[in-house]
Structures are given as structure tokens and as C-alpha cells.
Design a protein that fits this description.
about 0% strand; about 60% helix; 13 helices; Transcription factor MYB2; DNA-binding; about 240 residues; mainly alpha; 2 domains; transcription; Arc Repressor Mutant, subunit A; EOBI/EOBII-like_plant
DNA sequence: AACAGTCCCAACCGCGAATGA
DNA sequence: CTCATTCGCGGTTGGGACTGT
């Protein structure tokens, strides 16, 4: 025991000191879990504003937070970051989520990259609470071809129709179809932002505008109850039976 | 008003990948 | 190269808010 004490006292490297601190921390302080307090938030914000992100475990200790590095990282990325966008998922964002999910599956962080200010957690929650709810109502699996077709041929066109009409863009039925989509073009006609990359619809070789363009573009619509007001369950079921 | 059921979202957990010693 | 640590992702859960009876 005394030998260890002496070793601790003599340790010189940062790594050694961090290890000692960690041992002492584990012995003396209970790691906090659960909801964050305002005080904890402030500590994290202040520390990151001075020292930047990264090295979350040591950051947690240095900032005087009795939290795991993981917990700090999550709190920062999903809640405290200054560029976080709050509020309902807009209609444009819904279209992007549905489209990207059909291509990428449950790769939430990849999908989130196309939605500035939205976190993977938020998109994941949206999918689970809103989209899966509709699959449940229709009594089909969320990953089934049937449900994917519903999204592709009914849900997305309706969303796009609503976006276009809200933006007062001239709309014809040809503006959106899964096989021949000019949706992004129509939707981005009021947008001033620059195109940033990925093709919007129909696979890698097709060029119908860009998702990022849509995400960044124009007016932001409140889409909170959009799914529920686009159609009734009966209407969906009738469509499925066709 | 009280209770039960459902919804929603912040936070946690486990695992694999990346990085460093 | 190996092992330990850290990071990031996707799945899951707990509990407060909301809604219906």
C-alpha cells in the first residue's frame, strides 16, 4: 500500500496522473446518471467553449463533471451544441428522411448528415414514433416491401405535393413519381442555397437535384402532425388493397 | 378528479471500429 | 503485432407529458 502511494506521488506523465485521478474518482465519487442539471450543462458548455470537444473521459473530469465521457458526449451532441435545430421535423425533412432511409436503412448518423442541426437520435426517434406507428396501424412490418411501397408511392408524393403547394410552386402530377421524379427541382425552385451533393432520388446514376439542397432550402414548414393529416388509415388500407 | 393507457424523447447500454501505447 | 482505451453508432428503456375514459 505504501509502495503504491509512493508510486502515485512520483508519477510524472499525464497518462499516469489521469489513471490515478480515475482510480481516486472511482473510489470517492459516485458516477452520476440520469437527467442533467442546469449546473452540469453550464459546466460542460463553459468547458467546451474554452477547450473544445474531444477526449470525453478526461474532459468530464477536467470540467468537474461526475459523468462518464460517453454521457458528456451524448449530452453535448444531442442537446447542448449551439447549432442544434429544435422543433418539429419539417415536411422537407420528412421527405429526406423517408428517401434516405429507403436507401441507407437504419444508418441514422448518415441520414442526419443531410439534415443540418438534426441529430441521429432525433431522426431515430422520429422514425420509431411516427413512421413505425403507421406501419403498426397498417398491420405490416416496417421493413416489408408493402410498407416501403406505401412510403414510396403514396406517402412521399403527398408530402411533396403539400410542400410544393405551400410554396406556391406550380405543381402537376408529374412533379413527383418514384420512377420519374422532378420533385427536388420543383421544391428547390424557391431555394437560394447551394447544392451540396447527393442525388435526390432514383439511385446513384439519376440526377434530380439534391437532398441537401432541399434540406437547406426555402421556408421551413411545421410538419408536426403532417403524417396524420396527409391521409386516413382507411385511405391507406384501400390503397394497399388495390 | 382520478386513473389507465399511450406517446415521445432524453439518456443509457452494448458492441464494433479506430486509435494509441 | 497486441492489448487497452476511446469513440461513435444503433438499439433500447425510463419516465414525464399528454389523452381518453
Amino acid at each position: 500500500m505504501n509502495t503504491n502511494r509512493a508510486e502515485f506521488a512520483n508519477c510524472k506523465t499525464l497518462k499516469q496522473k489521469e489513471e490515478v485521478e480515475e482510480i481516486e474518482t472511482k473510489m470517492e465519487i459516485e458516477i452520476r446518471r440520469g437527467p442533467w442539471t442546469v449546473e452540469e450543462d453550464m459546466k460542460l458548455i463553459n468547458y467546451i467553449s474554452l477547450h473544445g470537444e474531444g477526449r470525453w473521459n478526461s474532459l468530464s473530469r477536467s470540467a468537474g463533471l461526475n459523468r462518464t465521457g460517453k454521457s458528456c458526449r451524448l449530452r453535448w451532441l444531442n442537446y447542448l451544441r449551439p447549432d442544434i435545430r429544435r422543433g418539429d421535423i419539417s415536411l422537407q425533412e420528412q421527405v429526406i428522411i423517408l428517401e434516405l432511409h429507403s436507401r441507407l436503412g437504419n444508418r441514422w448518423s448518415k441520414i442526419a448528415q443531410h439534415l443540418p442541426g438534426r441529430t441521429d437520435n432525433e431522426i431515430k426517434n422520429y422514425w420509431r414514433t411516427r413512421v413505425q406507428k403507421h406501419a403498426k396501424l397498417l398491420k405490416c412490418d416496417v421493413n416489408s416491401k408493402q410498407f416501403n411501397d406505401t412510403i414510396k408511392h403514396l406517402w412521399m408524393p403527398r408530402l411533396v405535393e403539400r410542400i410544393v403547394s405551400t410554396q406556391n410552386v406550380e405543381f402537376t402530377p408529374n412533379h413527383y413519381s418514384p420512377e420519374n421524379s422532378t420533385v427536388a427541382t420543383a421544391m428547390s425552385s424557391t431555394s437560394s442555397s447551394e447544392s451540396m451533393g447527393s442525388s435526390f432520388y432514383g439511385g446513384d446514376q439519376m440526377e434530380y437535384g439534391t437532398l441537401d439542397h432541399v434540406a437547406n432550402g426555402g421556408t421551413c414548414f411545421n410538419g408536426g402532425d403532417a403524417l396524420e393529416t396527409l391521409w386516413s388509415v382507411d385511405e391507406l388500407n384501400n390503397w394497399l388493397l388495390q
